[in-house]
């Protein structure tokens, strides 16, 4: 795909154009896309669902690159970003490994009496909070001294090995559910004492992970019991805590329905009373990329169909219609620590454009079902002391933000009310659900407004990771307040040459160990970049317009700040 320099000029009172060479204006090479935004429309509050992140490996949080990345996440929306992680209750000294972590939170003395050690979990949560991030507390997994099958305990999994080898002694029920509940109570009580009631009230608390597959080696009934005792422990320490679940693999189907029925109408195993409070509900949704011939083909339809079905299950229960939903893991595929050809999309702009296109459709699916979507959690963080751009699903590599993180930076600039944005080349939601984006590219937009600003995010996405022609975007905005005569345009971009440390590293020759000067250049390339400097454009009778080209896999954020 050939790229051209873009020069911004004012071409008419209501038109701003990026100069487009004749070679890319031909219809057979470059689709012409009309996008219309109605700044006077109101589709309800913009739910900032992107503010949730997570990872298998809790101990990376307090390492050098983990701390740096947490700081960058916290900067997106200080105090409003949440982080979920596995392995917070595992037995071990806190040494990280792929798909593993430990804190040594619980052990027993020679008499079988509990011994609580909060040092490592405190270090993890301290690091979150110091960086403007709050815990989404996953209560798991089972400490070795409490497990019904304690050996083998720590798994020895590596990329390429069978995934089932991950599920060892930590995945089993407790020998004593009362001790399990007491452990959760003592830890919650400690958190309230350390961080304060007002702080901990803002956290989310849920039990285990994907209990409908290998992560749980007990029965469904034992999972309900595990959850009841855990939540009773949380609420005994903090009655105002926000609790929920079940964070199933996929929508969970009948497993999820059974969990909801138990929580809504069943007998609580811990208290003997009716039900277990659900302040939020959660399930997971993944795509299904695969290698076809010589390239990766993404499976956005698989992820969106799972969300569609998950929202439908929640909507079956009238008591849950307004309950916040967190898609507790929401990603293009399922294994962040895996490597291989089918994961080759992760370092570059395929991941970032997929993220823009899929997040917008999550809002549409929530509207379709009339449910309350609170968040969609991206299960990606960073992997410490690994080669540069090693092929993991992560937001940063060796301290360098990757293109996908810059899409989240774009999203963080959108706020206020969602407004109507239509595109001549948007693939209809029903078509994406059925077959993905396999023919024409999806060139579409998502927009918001405040009293002082209109924000439009535009993406150029296709499931096939292949080069293609740039799209010629003609963007018109109407409904701007009539008193506004000028708007300042700031155009942020993620593409091959903007906001992209990975392609900068490749152009550098893919150095194994970049020197200080090279690293500084890569850090600069990892920042969210603009195309040119902000410019002022005329607004007449509430209308304005601008045009530019958008490369395949590119994402733009156009901000119109009213003057």
UniProtKB/TrEMBL annotation:
- What SUPFAM superfamilies would the database entry show? (Trans)glycosidases, Glycosyl hydrolase domain
Q: Does the keyword Manganese apply?
A: no
Q: Does the keyword Hydrolase apply?
A: yes
Instruction: Give a GO biological-process term.
Output: carbohydrate metabolic process
Q: Which Pfam families match?
A: Glyco_hydro_39
Alphabetically sorted, this entry's keywords are:
Glycosidase, Hydrolase
Q: What is its EC number?
A: 3.2.1.37
> What does the record give as the active site?
210
Q: Which residues form the Glycosyl hydrolases family 39 N-terminal catalytic domain?
A: 34-527
Q: Which Gene3D superfamilies match?
A: Glycosidases, Glycosyl hydrolase domain, family 39
Lineage, top-rank taxon, reads: Bacteria
GO: which molecular function terms? Answer: xylan 1,4-beta-xylosidase activity
The family assignment reads: Belongs to the glycosyl hydrolase 39 family.
What protein name does the entry list?
Beta-xylosidase
Source organism of this protein record:
Novipirellula herctigrandis
């Amino acid at each position: 795909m050939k790229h051209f320099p873009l020069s911004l000029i004012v071409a008419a009172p209501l038109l701003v154009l990026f100069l487009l060479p004749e070679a890319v204006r031909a219809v057979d090479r470059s689709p012409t896309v009309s996008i219309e935004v109605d700044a006077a429309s109101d589709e309800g509050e913009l739910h900032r669902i992107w503010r949730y992140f997570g990872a298998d490996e809790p101990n990376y949080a307090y390492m050098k690159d983990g701390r740096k990345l947490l700081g960058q996440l916290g900067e997106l929306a200080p105090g409003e970003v949440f982080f979920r992680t596995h392995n917070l209750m595992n037995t071990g000294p806190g040494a990280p490994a792929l798909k593993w972590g430990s804190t040594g939170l619980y052990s027993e003395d020679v008499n079988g009496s509990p011994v609580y050690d909060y040092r490592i979990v405190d270090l993890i949560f301290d690091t979150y909070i110091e960086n403007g991030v709050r815990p989404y507390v996953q209560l798991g997994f089972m400490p070795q001294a409490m497990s019904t099958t304690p050996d083998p305990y720590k798994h020895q999994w590596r990329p390429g090995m069978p995934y089932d080898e991950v599920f060892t002694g930590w995945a089993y029920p407790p020998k004593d559910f009362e001790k399990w509940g007491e452990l959760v109570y003592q830890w919650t009580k400690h958190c309230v004492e350390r961080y304060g009631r007002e702080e901990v009230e803002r956290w989310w608390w849920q039990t285990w992970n994907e209990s409908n597959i290998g992560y749980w080696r007990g029965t469904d009934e034992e999972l309900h019991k595990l959850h009841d005792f855990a939540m009773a422990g949380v609420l005994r320490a903090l009655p105002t805590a926000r609790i929920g679940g079940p964070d199933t693999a996929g929508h969970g189907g009948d497993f999820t329905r059974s969990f909801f029925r138990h929580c809504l109408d069943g007998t609580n195993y811990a208290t003997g009373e009716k039900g277990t409070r659900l302040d939020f509900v959660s399930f997971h949704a993944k795509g299904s990329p695969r290698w076809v011939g010589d390239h990766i083909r993404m499976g956005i339809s698989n992820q969106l169909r799972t969300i569609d079905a998950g929202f439908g299950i929640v909507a079956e229960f009238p008591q849950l219609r307004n309950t916040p939903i967190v898609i507790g893991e929401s990603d293009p595929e399922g294994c962040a620590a895996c490597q291989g050809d089918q994961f080759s999309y992760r370092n570059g702009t395929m991941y970032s454009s997929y993220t823009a296109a899929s997040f917008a459709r999550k809002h549409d699916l929530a509207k379709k079902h009339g449910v309350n979507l609170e968040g969609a959690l991206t299960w990606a963080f960073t992997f410490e002391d690994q080669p540069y751009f090693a092929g993991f699903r992560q937001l940063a590599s060796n301290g360098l933000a990757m293109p996908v993180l810059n899409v989240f930076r774009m999203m963080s600039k959108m706020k206020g009310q969602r407004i109507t944005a239509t595109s001549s080349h948007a693939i209809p939601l029903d078509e994406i659900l059925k077959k993905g984006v396999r023919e024409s590219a999806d060139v579409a937009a998502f927009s918001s407004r405040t009293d002082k600003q209109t924000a439009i995010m535009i993406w150029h996405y296709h499931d096939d990771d292949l080069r293609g022609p740039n799209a010629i975007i003609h963007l018109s905005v109407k409904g701007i307040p009539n008193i506004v005569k000028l708007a300042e345009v700031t155009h942020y971009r993620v593409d091959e040459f903007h906001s992209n440390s990975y392609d900068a590293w490749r152009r550098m020759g893919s150095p194994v160990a970049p020197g200080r000067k090279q690293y500084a250049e890569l850090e600069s390339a990892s920042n969210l970049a603009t195309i040119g400097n902000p410019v002022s454009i005329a607004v007449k009778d509430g209308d304005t317009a601008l045009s530019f080209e958008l490369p395949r896999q590119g994402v733009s954020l156009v901000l119109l700040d009213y003057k």
